[in-house]
Amino acid sequence: MTINIRGELIDLSKPKIMGILNLTPDSFYDGGRYYETESALKQTDNMIEAGAYFIDLGACSTKPGAKPVSVEVEKKRLLPVLEKLTKTYPKTHFSIDTFRSSIAAEALDRGAAIINDISGGQFDNKMMDTIGSYNVPYVLMHTSGKPENMQKNPTYKNVVKEVVYYFSNKIQSAYKAGINDIIIDPGFGFGKTISHNYEILKNLKFFQNFELPIMIGLSRKSMIYKKLGISPDEALNGSTVLNTVALINGANILRVHDVTQAKECVDLLQALR
User: What residues act catalytically?
Assistant: First the structure.
């Protein structure tokens, strides 16, 4: 289970941690905390020190109900910070959380290593061809609807089967576009009810049939804090529990806010195995 990042083969048989760096004022958990370049650099340093293998930068909030910012605003938030980070941490692999091909291209030109697209190419029909031309890994996520409306009564007859079918089609499209390294993400909280999310997590092993790395983003999400009747600030323990379940069920990458605790999950499960 490997991905190729600019000629370097990354072994994902031991799961890796992707630290979240939100460069937005309105993300659901840590919006505004790392909006300035210096605070972003400090948080990146903290996450790398704690064991993050990848850092995922997002400059356009995709939380439920969020409206997208303009391309110009996304670039202004993202590119100066990315340039500083790639110079400061040249050995770290930076992922870009964007659904826009123009942002992806400019970020890749500035040293980004992975594109993490919540829409799986649905929001920008040039995205897959762009990724294929750069020959970098692509995180292909499932979502139903756009952030501003995706949580308005999401409905499935069988959520696991329908998400599997979605990946079957999208993976073929990605290969046709020349993308060689695909990571799939079932998209917890993106166009799904709480019960849908738990059904997917329970049946995560079905997604191993694609023989592709699986990335999981459960960190402090509403499937935890709403289920427990707490706030996102209080959802660290719940995140750790569900990250552990995800690892047991086949996750290869954990995308998290709290790197130390996620890395402990990985290390302890590796010891158990």
Answer: 221, 255
